[in-house]
Design a protein that fits this description.
Elements (H helix, E strand, L loop, with lengths): L2 E4 L8 E4 L11 E10 L2 H8 L18 E6 L5 E5 L2 E2 L17 H9 L16 E2 L13 E5 L3 E3 L6 H4 L2 H14 L7 E4 L5 H12 L3 E6 L2 H10 L3 E4 L5 H8 L4 E6 L6 H7 E9 L12 H6 L3 E4 L5 H13 L6 E6 L3 H9 L6 E5 L1
Parallel strand pairs: 10-11, 10-13, 11-12, 13-14, 14-15, 16-17
Antiparallel strand pairs: 1-2, 3-4, 3-8, 3-17, 4-5, 5-9, 6-7
Helix pairs in contact: 4-5, 4-10, 7-8
Length: 361
């Protein structure tokens, strides 16, 4: 099959396009997906660079990136499907609903109402949790086909277009998880960095639809126009304005929640921007893994910091329903052919995109 893989970690040039890469073989409880679209994410870049190696993780090489997978499933009557990219052990307390003794009746009812094995809400806490196409031994969507666990397959509603579906399983799911976990609702004021990024775009659209006031940052006039179209209420040009100072002008007491996917460069700003008792949701480190924290400000403000890794399958199903109900339209920046995967990653690394970058198979 046609595929883009890397045989060693490194810069973008390690990506190699092949027309005779071995076809995937479905294992027990797995199915083959014929891929139509695959979204590009920063996770693809981190995986290619070998970021997980710093934590002692290793993956089987060669490896195929790509977590936002949409296609058809021949074994399921050719149904249009998307893939929930998280895989877990299926046995631990986080992977089995029966072991969660603190689950409320309402939560149990919600679990029972979710279809297709969505019977738990914590599988992303499993210590074996990994992401298909990410830093795991599961190959991803930069290919014509992929083998995935059947339980990860989600049938697409007819009204949801393939291109939109290919944006949801990573950036939008992570944003949805952070917004839910931190109680974003009407009258809440949130700050999210980088309106043109995947997390930035997703957070702005979802939070605005939930009734929150959204403040975001941009680095150019064109990205400012983009942020306005997404629904951001306040926009800070980080190249000309101090973010923390501008937040004080907009919300003197500080924001309720900061969505931080930038990492080292923004942690101090995030803490400064929060109100007393505010919440900081962290899901990325595009600017670096080691951050300096103003500890006195952190504890005197009594800030709550919550890490987020993707989300659960149940949350993805809820997200799909919400996106359709609110008629949210993810913005597609550009679509590359499979052999253009290297150029697609270069564009993301350079920050030249406003919206989602896709590969089309």
């Amino acid at each position: 099959m046609k595929a883009v893989a890397f045989f060693e970690h490194g810069p973008v040039d390690v990506l190699q396009y092949h027309e005779d890469f071995p076809d995937p073989v479905a294992g027990k409880d797995e199915v083959i997906i014929d891929i139509k679209y695959c979204g590009i994410n920063h996770l693809d870049i981190w995986t290619r660079q070998g970021i997980g190696g710093a934590a002692g993780k290793k993956i089987r090489l060669p490896h195929i990136c790509g977590c936002d997978i949409v296609g058809t499933a021949p074994a399921i009557k050719g149904q249009r499907v998307m893939i929930y990219p998280g895989v877990s052990c299926g046995k631990c307390q986080y992977c089995t609903s029966s072991s969660n003794n603190n689950t409320t009746i309402t939560q149990r009812r919600r679990k029972n109402n979710n279809n297709n094995n969505c019977n738990n809400e914590h599988e992303n806490l499993c210590n074996q949790f990994a992401i298909i196409g990410g830093f795991s031994d599961y190959n991803g969507g930069y290919a014509e086909q992929v083998a995935v666990p059947e339980k990860n397959v989600i049938r697409l509603p007819s009204a949801l277009k393939d291109e939109a579906a290919a944006t949801l399983a990573v950036s939008y799911l992570t944003a949805w998880n952070m917004l839910q976990t931190n109680g974003v609702s009407r009258r809440k004021k949130i700050l999210v960095y980088g309106a043109s990024s995947g997390i930035g775009m997703a957070t702005i659209q979802l939070a605005e639809a939930l009734g929150a006031t959204v403040i975001t940052t941009v680095s150019s006039n064109s990205k400012q126009d983009f942020a306005k179209k997404l629904g951001a209420h306040y926009i800070i040009d980080r190249t000309r304005q101090d973010i923390a100072d501008e937040i004080k002008k907009i919300v003197p007491a500080g924001v309720d929640i900061v969505i931080d996917h930038v990492g080292a460069a923004t942690w101090a700003t995030s803490i400064a921007a929060l109100r007393q008792g505010g919440r900081m949701a962290v899901c990325g480190m595009t600017s670096g893994n080691e951050a300096t924290v103003p500890i006195r400000m952190f504890y005197t403000k009594q800030i709550v910091m919550v890490g987020s890794l993707l989300g659960t399958r149940a949350q993805l199903q809820e997200l799909i329903n919400f996106v359709m109900r609110k008629k949210i339209q993810p913005v597609i920046d550009s679509v590359f052919p499979l052999q253009g995967a290297k150029e697609a990653q270069k564009k993301m690394e350079a920050g030249m995109h406003t919206g989602k970058i896709l590969l089309k198979l």
